[in-house]
């Protein structure tokens, strides 16, 4: 479907009979659900929306107007990436993304929770630079250290095992965005290979996962979006369909 973000006054596209995900192209939470849909190879449509000028109909599917929201039947929706992803993994069990061991499942959830501080530091660094403090930088790196240590302990290619699972698809969207911060002059947020050797190897492995590769964006693209948002005019529609795969975006045609 189109990369255009629909806004106030735009009509809701006709329902096509598939699952439909309402998202915003640069939202890490929406990306979590996109990755799960891709990984499980579930047929779906997506509709991108402008979060500053929300179309009226989004509130039918998400009471607060947040994304992602999943239309699982025509006119019926569930919202929040965690709720959506657990629903998808249980509803469509053919490609299971969660461990069967209850303890490992709990450990995955705890790991995701331990990274929330790093995610908050990212948002502050990206969008509220004057509020950035040394303690936030420290919190960010503590999160990275926790993740690297967990990878070392598990001794697997991905956190889930030989193949990525829900924990990997939940964490990845922020790792994707963290790499944009040094391009914005925030060198203290760099993921230095000399310090994070296991983590940087994991990042490169994740970039090549088909579910990720078909949707992720290059650090330069994320940096460009962050800059537009920081100027008060987020450019939701800056992409063409070629600007994916975690590589440098193609130059726009003159």
Automatic annotation (TrEMBL):
The keyword Transferase belongs to this UniProt entry's keyword annotation: yes
Family membership: Belongs to the GST superfamily. Omega family.
Alphabetized UniProt keyword annotations: Oxidoreductase, Transferase
The protein's name: Glutathione S-transferase omega-1
PANTHER family the UniProt entry points to: GLUTATHIONE S-TRANSFERASE OMEGA, PTHR43968
Domain GST N-terminal, chain residue ranges per copy: 17-96
InterPro entries per the UniProt record, alphabetical: Glutathione-S-Trfase_C-like (IPR010987), Glutathione-S-Trfase_C_sf (IPR036282), Glutathione_S-Trfase (IPR040079), Glutathione_S-Trfase_N (IPR004045), GST_omega (IPR005442), GST_Omega/HSP26 (IPR050983), Thioredoxin-like_sf (IPR036249)
Any one Pfam family match given in the protein's UniProt record, by short name: GST_N_3
GO terms of biological process kind: glutathione metabolic process
GO molecular function: glutathione dehydrogenase (ascorbate) activity; glutathione transferase activity
Gene3D superfamilies hit by this protein: 1.20.1050.10, Glutaredoxin
Any Gene Ontology CC annotation: cytoplasm
Domain GST C-terminal, chain residue ranges per copy: 101-226
Cross-referenced PROSITE patterns: GST_CTER (PS50405), GST_NTER (PS50404)
């Amino acid at each position: 479907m189109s990369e255009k973000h629909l806004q106030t006054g735009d009509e809701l596209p006709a329902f096509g009979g598939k699952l439909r995900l309402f998202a915003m192209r640069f939202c890490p939470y929406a990306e979590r659900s996109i990755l799960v849909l891709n990984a499980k190879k579930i047929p779906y449509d997506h509709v991108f929306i402008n979060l500053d000028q929300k179309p009226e109909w989004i509130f039918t599917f998400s009471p607060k107007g947040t994304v992602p929201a999943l239309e699982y039947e025509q006119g019926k929706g569930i919202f929040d990436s965690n709720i959506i992803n657990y629903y998808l993994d249980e509803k469509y069990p053919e490609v299971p993304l969660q461990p069967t061991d209850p303890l490992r499942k709990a450990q995955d959830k705890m790991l995701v929770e331990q990274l929330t501080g790093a995610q908050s530091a990212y948002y502050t660094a990206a969008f509220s630079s004057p509020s950035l403090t040394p303690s936030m930088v420290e919190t960010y790196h503590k999160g990275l250290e926790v993740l690297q240590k967990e990878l070392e302990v598990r001794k697997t290619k991905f956190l889930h095992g030989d193949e990525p699972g829900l924990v990997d698809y939940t964490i990845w969207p922020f790792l994707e965005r963290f790499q944009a911060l040094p391009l914005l002059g925030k060198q203290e947020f760099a993921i230095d290979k000399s310090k994070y050797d296991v983590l940087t190897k994991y990042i490169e492995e994740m970039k090549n996962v088909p579910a990720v590769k078909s949707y992720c964006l290059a650090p330069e693209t994320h940096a460009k979006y962050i800059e537009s948002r920081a100027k008060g005019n987020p450019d939701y529609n800056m992409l063409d369909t070629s600007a994916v795969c975690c590589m440098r975006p193609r130059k726009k045609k003159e």
